[in-house]
Amino acid sequence: MIARNTVLLTILCLIFLSSSTAIGTSIDFNVSEIENDDSIYWTVSPQRSDNFNFGDNFYTTYGGPDLKAHILGNNEFSSGDIYNLNINLANKGTITGFEIENEADDDLDIKLQAIEKGYETERTTAIGITSVLLSPHSFIDVKSGPQESGTLRSGEQTQSSPKFIVDIDDDAPAGTYFLVLRTVYGYQENVQVSGDELTAEGNIKDVEIGMWYEARSQNHTIPLIIKKEANFEVVNVTSDLRSGEGGVLKVTYRNTGNLPAKDATAKISVYTPFSTTDDQAFLGTLEAGDTAQGVFSLNVDETTISKNHSINSEIRYEDTESKTQLSDTMKISVQTLPAISLKDKILGNTWILVILVILMVASAGMVIYMKLIRKENKIRP
């Protein structure tokens, strides 16, 4: 992902240069790299055309744009969610110095020198900023492509911040991770001012101003914190739910997070063909890695057919700061079975069979006993 976006940014640099003000018909490129404590810069420099003459250049100016980037708002996130990441860009660029290349020899040069110095201060402006957010972590996926932020003068910050969609995996471990925001922009590298002569009014006749632009790329470190918290998953489901009957649904939950969940209560949300008046089950306190079983009573519509159904479940709990939290929605897969016939119920229930045998034996014994009584009464004189 990073290599692909690096190529993309290089292309953006070249596109910028091809559309920027330049003198000459053929352009070759030099690439230089500068590193400081905050950022890494790449500067893509077109070779100056022969007819762009800096022999009369009055100043060489040092300094340039310096973009700073940070996440707007809280930078703590939960695993298993998708977020819109808003990043603020601010231009802290400064002019660090001027070096005089040519002294002013006359009034014309003095005026030209002043004009050039005024333009040289624009060197700190970042032009046509484009940003790409890169993630070196497999469990943090940046869904958005390059974002444009316009132009920032020194001291300005973005009015419309670059926005990136970030997807954090369910199993992302808690901790602090660093993303890379790569910005590419153009800036004014140098200015040349020339004029023919001063008029009687003191104005310069036929003023020409040549501006040379370069493209630069900066890398910015963006810290992102995945919070320590309780997290849950369904690890086992057992049920005996038949058409037209009531049954029990047993669901085992595990705290897969790294913090305990106090006074946890599981809740299910049921729809046709299910109904219930018992949609909550108290789980108690689940330490990290603990499991607990929730038991729910369900009724099944008599018209339902045998198939798999999905039931939503959530867990409400107190975190380590005694704040009430609600887990992400979990899916419970439940199968409904056809109703059991009376014959199958009897044959499948050992106790019913035993009772029936006892009743049959007792009935037979009663019949024999009654016959013996009648026979005995007939024999008596």
Explain this structure.
The chain crosses the membrane at residues 351-370. The protein has 381 residues and is of the alpha+beta class. It has three domains: 2-226, Sandwich (Immunoglobulin-like), CATH 2.60.40; 232-339, Sandwich (Immunoglobulin-like); 347-379. It is 18% helix and 49% strand. β1 (29-35) and β2 form a beta hairpin. Residues 1-38 and 43-51 have low confidence and may be disordered.
Low-pLDDT runs of 5+ residues are 1-38, 43-51
What percent of residues adopt helix (DSSP H or I)? 10-25%
How far the N terminus sits from the C terminus, by CA atoms, comes to 113 Å
What is the CATH level 1 assignment of the largest domain?
Answer: Mainly Beta
Protein name: S-layer-like domain-containing protein
Organism: Methanohalophilus mahii (strain ATCC 35705 / DSM 5219 / SLP)
Keywords: Membrane, Transmembrane, Transmembrane helix
Report a brief summary of the structure:
This protein is an alpha+beta fold. The chain has 3 domains: 2-226, Immunoglobulin-like (Sandwich); 232-339, Immunoglobulin-like (Sandwich); 347-379.
Sequence-ordered SSE layout with sheet pairings:
Blueprint: H1 2-19, E1 29-35, E2 40-46, E3 59-64, E4 67-71, E5 76-77, E6 82-91, E7 94-100, H2 107-120, E8 126-134, E9 140-142, E10 147-152, E11 163-168, E12 175-194, E13 197-198, E14 204-205, E15 208-226, E16 232-239, E17 241-242, E18 246-255, E19 261-269, E20 274-278, E21 280-286, E22 291-300, E23 307-318, E24 324-326, E25 330-337, H3 342-347, H4 350-379
Parallel strand pairs: 5-15, 17-25
Antiparallel strand pairs: 1-2, 2-15, 3-7, 4-6, 6-11, 8-10, 8-12, 9-11, 12-15, 13-14, 16-18, 18-22, 19-21, 19-23, 20-22, 23-24, 23-25
